[in-house]
Specification:
The protein is of the alpha+beta class. It folds into 2 domains: about 120 residues, Outer membrane lipoprotein wza domain like (Outer membrane lipoprotein wza fold like), CATH 3.10.560; about 60 residues, wza like domain (wza like fold), CATH 3.30.1950. The protein has 5 helices and 10 strands; from the N terminus they run ααββββαβββαββαβ. The strands form 3 sheets. A 5-stranded mixed β-sheet has the order 7-6-10-8-9, covered by helices on one side. Strands 2-1-5 form a 3-stranded antiparallel β-sheet, with helices on one face. The radius of gyration is 21 Å and the shape is elongated. The N terminus is likely disordered.
Length: about 200
């Protein structure tokens, strides 16, 4: 069962009092899973992604464009448009509004044809440290597996994730031993673009 489906089952078990867990999940752990699951269907465009912008019956302004490091894209008529941080649907709505100044009732479609901004880094005591581009929502445990797993010297209970939070970095603990020993899905949260998984 994947992580983004599990919270519904957790809430059902909690409501009915059924379940074989040794300890009830904490509010923090349930919130973490629910928060991760809430955004799994909302991919946000980032730098280096490639977008196909189509305007129906107007090939002259339809383009396949890369997202620049500053999050902007360039298109005919509307020139510079911010795409970074938006969902494809949000960008579609923004472009439709801008194109309306030049085209009556424009029908705009935005498709992410290449995802390059969804990447995380893994550092420290893993077999293959590096930066990994992801194509789907992935948990911390899955990312560690992509890196070849932790080494015998890893402090597995002291792993943490550094996550961009505005101009700062938020530190999130990840106890590998606890998850492996108890199969606790609450702690095996989804990574986000830009995360750095550190294995001391």
């Amino acid at each position: 069962m994947t992580l983004h489906v599990f919270p519904c089952a957790v809430l059902l078990l909690l409501a009915t009092g059924v379940g074989g867990c040794a300890a009830a999940p904490t509010a923090e752990s349930v919130g973490r899973v629910a928060g991760a699951a809430a955004g799994v269907d909302e991919y946000r465009i980032g730098p280096a992604d490639v977008l196909q912008v189509s305007v129906w019956k107007n090939e002259a302004v339809s383009r396949t464009v890369p997202v620049r490091p500053d999050g902007m894209i360039s298109l005919p008529l509307v020139n510079e448009v911010r795409a970074g941080g938006l969902t494809p649907m949000q960008l579609r709505d923004a472009l439709k509004k801008k194109f309306t100044q030049y085209i009556p009732n424009p029908e705009v479609a935005v498709v992410v044809v290449e995802m390059h901004s969804f990447a995380v880094s893994v550092l420290g005591e893993v077999k293959t440290a590096g930066r990994y581009e992801l194509k789907s929502w992935t948990t911390v445990l899955d990312v560690l597996a992509r890196a070849g797993g932790v080494t015998e010297f890893a402090a597995r209970s002291q792993i943490f994730v550094l996550r961009p939070d505005g101009n700062a970095m938020k530190r999130i603990s990840f106890n590998y031993d606890k998850i492996i020993a108890t199969s606790e899905p609450y702690e095996n949260f989804l990574v986000q673009p830009g995360d750095i998984v550190v294995v001391p």
